[in-house]
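Re: weekly structure request thread

Next one in the queue (457 aa):
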Amino acid sequence: MTIAYPMPVLGEPELTAAEAVLADAGVRLVVGSVIDPAGVARAKEVPVRRVRAFHVNGMGASPSWNVFCIDNTVAFTPSLGVAGDLRLRADLDAMRVVGDQLAWAPAEMFTQEGEPFPLCSRGLLRKTQSCLESQGLSALVGCELEMVLTKADGSPLDGRPWNAYGVSAALDVEAFLVDLIQACELVGLPVEQVHSEYGRGQYELSLAPTDPITAADNVVLTRLIVGRISRRHGMAASFSPLPFADGSGNGAHQHLSLSRGGEPLFSGGQGPYGLTEEGASAVAGIVAGLPEMLGVLAGSVLSAHRLKPGFWSGAFACWGLENREAAVRFCAATRGNPYGANVEVKCVDGSANPYLATTVILGLALDGVSRRAQLPPEVPGNPAELTDVELAQTGTVRLPDGQSAVLSALAGSPLAGRLLGEDIRQALLAVRGHELNTYDNEDIAFLTERFRFAWSL
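Done, posted below.
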């Protein structure tokens, strides 16, 4: 799939076809959404007769959308204040009719003159994917979304004793799951599986791999569909890194595979488990860069409460075959893996902007390939049990622990500046810095209650 940068304006035949699709489906309202640096979905809605203008001209939005915080404070920066205006342009190529007279499309930010806005996260991923393709590489990304279902008021669901991954946990919400899968199929979301998870009220949806931009779009669309269906069933769904103080955390794991000229980089080679030389360098790049880039993947005020050893959240920068305690879990090309070899980045959580998270993972892999990074030794067991000598031998480090350490690493990283651009990095530091300064001393029970649905749609 070839991705143009910047997002092109559709021609007359394509615009007419999009309008016909909406008319045939009886759509009356079109939602165009962006995800801000805090990971929160923001949107403009237009009547269907305005969809052409939404794509060609765009709808107005303040540049300060890029420094909105999870508590709705605006963390103004020297370059983002009360003045100025942007245009949100809906990508009608990616538009989906979600039912009940409603359609959704991802949007990108442009200046009033029509130039790409440097803080647009989807635009940055579009640029990164174009760069990847220009170097002869192709990527597939598949995402896993964990969520906790609650009552409509946010309190825990009533139910029988919870069995992790149990059949009874699925049957307790059978009608919801059936409606959810049907709704996902109607909009073309490639759901591979759904199952109850470890924590009480926790479920996971796995999405099939696709190109990076579509994969990130699918994360947003899945949350929208989950939000609509859960409301219909008198429930709500939390994608927070930690919805309840005494509960399990939610991950938003990303699987990545790379190929060159149709040949996979993670299999068919002479390296461990079939890794090619470039594939090994890509994995090495991801492992090496995670400590600096954690502020993008898991940088919220609640993230550190999930990212702990012993919780299968990937708290250590290392890699290993099917190692669920490693931040990078390698999945080899086997009969049980129909999509081929890939790596799963486990430290990503639900507070991350999926466009920025995907950009960073791709960027780290490309950085490893470009500098021919050497793959460190595999960690086959629990990295928390390694001795100091073993930690040094494998290059394993604990990912920054606590929001202050996470943001300091991001602020001091030249690599982050290259992969994100200085504007996006400063916006991230502003919104997450506000969280740190305002809530660092708050009780975890208060934080989970306050931000349980900050990242839900």
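Residues 300 and 432 are 6 Å apart (CA to CA). The chain is about 35% helix and 20% strand.
Next request, please.
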